[in-house]
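COMPLEX REQUEST
Ligand: iron/sulfur cluster
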Amino acid sequence: MTAQKAQKRVFIRTYGCQMNVYDSDRMTDILRPLGYAVAPSPEQADLVVLNTCHIREHASEKVYSELGRLRDAKNERRAAGSDLTIAVAGCVAQAEGGEIAKRQPAVDIVVGPQAYHRLPQLLAEAERKAAILKAGKRLPGAGVLDTDFPTESKFDHMPDPQGVRAGSAFLSIQEGCDKFCTFCVVPYTRGAEYSRPAAAVLAEARQLVRAGAIEVTLLGQNVNAYHGEAADGSTWSLARLIREIADIEGVARIRYTTSHPRDMDDALIAAHGAVPQLMPYLHLPVQSGSDRILGEMNRQHGRDLFLGLVDRLRTARPDLALSSDFIVGFPGETDADFDDTMRLVDQVGFASAFSFKYSRRPGTPGSAMADQVPENVKVARLAALQALLGRQAHAFNLSKAGTTVPVLFAETGRRPGQLIGKTPWLQSVYAEGPQRLIGHIVETHLVAGHPNSLAGEIARVEEVAA
Ligand code: SAH
Ligand code: SF4
Ligand code: F3S
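STATUS: Structure written out below.
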């Protein structure tokens, strides 16, 4: 690498879901051979990438305020004789495309989630345009745009992944969605459902293990719809893939997210009872407990299917912890519908959950529905639901207090000597311990359960490899 090349630095800010976290890591992998090192802050970067989320209105609006700040930074740089390249990636890029550069002309590159393997070409093009402008010439249209859904797969055009953090890695196995829930932008921003070939996934899993991963989280917008082509021409389900990944030496923990209840098949339920590395935690979004609202949402299942799945999963793996996503205030949701949701939550008992007020997304069927629910009703329902879910999460944490469990330590805490790790049930544990434990699974005695975490004491530090 030449000295000049090594001077470039990139800062990627990631919004939204874990798929975006994975994509940001992959963009770093792609930019590394171009001489881009990772900058610790936007101030120290030559290139800032905002990897954006479009799921709710609030998520998209954050992007524009950040872009305003970056424009100011870019102007200051230019006044000082240097420059700042600004790229917008992710789901806002896909949904709004060229509108972004119109609304904020300081943006140099807009690249969708399926096209970011072309970043090197886009950067070269942006540099060429910047040079023309610098020479005082005019350009037709600002920015460089690539929001195609290319026929080639981005996965075939990327270097080996390096994104292992403290023993954990994300592995994207499936993308896109064909389900078209009436509230959701994902089918429009991520495109049609696509499963990566099984061999490519296994190769990447092995590479991640070589790079230090002991925990692999398989990702997809509809991860349990996975149906990847195997080398022998057959099709592998997610259950099959999990079993094969479990056979890779060094894989201690496997997780997957996000699942759809409709795609929870018998083999996957059985895997929860049969594969020791598959962690006893499942994020299974249900959105609502009302059959009528589930129908309006086009979720393609009712509350009984969900409750039946929960029973079967708990039969297969009695200590399984469940998590879910909920939307309150979907158009037409009555008090009775909302009560159905509260009753479902009561009946299941969730270890954790995410809950949101319905957000109208342009272009989705839900945004055009009559009977939009007033904001004050949404606020009240969300507060009631979150209070219930919060009590359940606290109760779940308390139920583990007094036990000793394996914790994968991931980072240091705010207090000196403090480490933060995860239990098999994805609870956060705070414990005192040496930094060398980060990236290791350590038996930890859980001494107290709090609303969002547990306090732990590490049993035998000296036995953990230095
Ligand atoms: N693929 C996943 C969800 C992806 S989006 C699934 O099928 O469940 C993550 C969560 O955001 C969703 O589960 C939903 O609860 C929430 N969400 C999506 N669109 C939303 C909207 N328009 N308003 C509020 N919440 C929304
Ligand atoms: Fe969105 Fe529904 Fe697809 Fe999930 S299944 S990504 S909520 S359309
Ligand atoms: Fe957001 Fe796109 Fe993920 S809209 S939730 S970043 S798939």
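REMARKS: Confidence is low (pLDDT under 50) at residues 1-5. The first helix runs from residue 3 to 6.
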